[in-house]
Amino acid sequence: MKTDKIKIGILGATGMVGQRFISFLQNHPYFEIKMLAASKHSAGYKYKDVCNWALETPMPLDVKDQIIINTEIDEIIKKDVKIVFSALPGNLAGDIENKCAEDGIIVCSNASAHRMDKDVPLVIGEVNPEHLQLIQTQKKNKNRKGAIITNPNCSVIQLALSLKPLDDAYGVEKIIVSTMQALSGAGRGGVAAFDILDNVIPYIDGEEEKIEEESKKILGVFDKDKIINHKILVSASANRINVLDGHTECVFCQLKKQPKNIDEVKNIFKNYKSMPQELNLPSAPKNPIIVIDDGFRPQPRYDRMKENGMAISIGRIRQDNCLGGIKYVCVGHNAIRGAVGASVLNAELFVKKYFDF
Ligand SMILES: NC(=O)c1ccc[n+]([C@@H]2O[C@H](COP(=O)([O-])OP(=O)(O)OC[C@H]3O[C@@H](n4cnc5c(N)ncnc54)[C@H](OP(=O)(O)O)[C@@H]3O)[C@@H](O)[C@H]2O)c1
Q1: How far is the CA of 317 from the centre of ligand 1 (A)?
Q2: How far apart are CA 83 and CA 148, in angstroms?
Q3: Which is catalytic among the residues 100, 108, 154, 330?
């Protein structure tokens, strides 16, 4: 890799995930923000004048005066960026992400539009980094110079990361998962205060289907030019709760082979490391999975920021006599580990392992 920083852009830069991208990419050793794009209502204005900044940390100085561009391919091309991080709403992302890839840009997307496309990798750095090789199939099939790389839905990222070491050790056949998802997962205008205060909403549109389908692709095997899906059966029930950041998930697993005891499972979680740790990537947590022994944890308020929000926390690991396996509770930061951190880690992996700009 050359020593100059790679110019990157952010689509949906003013939204919840866009803001997290800006914050997460501050002083990044590989990447420099050179383009901020949003809707035509924000275009033409300085970032500081239209963005309703909602993070605890201040808006970084170097973006404050950047002029937002409209999300049109001609405007994007003028900025000469090599990578764009997409934080667009799923229904708007598909077309512009394709256009960027056709123009030679690498798109690292949080949006759902292309996640299930057969030749688009759906990657979690620590779970299936080898799926990035699917980019070659995509370039060939679509005759494009760039490519789209996606990361999964926020609740799937922590779920699949917790399942991978179990699957390697014991084989996971079936799981039941009940999620308690943070408000920030719905975006800035997502849930009205009147609906969520003193309340739990037992439905999130499209979420259960995403959890059930994306898990199979992520845990699947890369075979020459395609992904063979994992046979895991997933049953999900998704709830919105009154927590700002951090999704909590209760997971019940049926395993092919039974663990000797719970300590063995704890060690498998604790010792799990993968390619991002081996390559020492800038955003890789030292330990992607943290095991907490306190019976009252993990809790989103205390555990979502472990390893800068990039590690998930697992606790309450116990035997499950109903499905025949184990059950546990898992917490992860939906907007960092479950969105921007995952996307940036994918870009780092791509740059370090598969590409030289
Ligand atoms: N929030 C999470 O935890 C999370 C986690 C994983 C994945 N995601 C995914 O990430 C994406 C962004 O989510 P979010 O929560 O950040 O949403 P959000 O807060 O609603 O932000 C949406 C962004 O898209 C821009 N936008 C809206 N309409 C547009 C248009 N017609 N053309 C161009 N830009 C437009 C907005 O710009 P203006 O300000 O100009 O309107 C804003 O920058 C979604 O696909 C979501 O599913 C979110």
Answers
A1: 35
A2: 10
A3: 154
Whether 131 sits among the annotated catalytic residues: the reply is: no
* CATH code, residues 154-333: 3.30.360.10
Tokens 């020459």 sit on residue? 224
Residue-wise pLDDT for 71-121, tens only, equals 999 999 999 999 999 999 989 999 999 999 999 999 999 999 999 999 999
Q: Which residues pair with 108 in a beta bridge?
A: 85, 149
Q: Where are the domains of the chain?
A: 6-153+340-354, 154-333
Q: Are 125 and 344 in contact (CB under 8 A)?
A: no
Return the ligand 1 atom nearest residue 189 CA: 20
Residue of the CA atom closest to atom 11 of ligand 1: 87
pLDDT, tens only, 309-342: 999 999 999 999 999 999 999 999 999 999 999 9
Contact between 308 and 327 under an 8 Å Cβ cutoff? The reply is no
CATH superfamily of 6-153+340-354: NAD(P)-binding Rossmann-like Domain (3.40.50.720)
Q: Which of 10, 16, 150 to mutate to test the pocket of ligand 1 (most atoms within 8 A of CB)?
A: 16
247 belongs to the catalytic site: yes
Which one of the listed residues 108, 247, 253, 333 is annotated catalytic? 247
Backbone angles phi, psi at 121, to 5 degrees: -70, 140
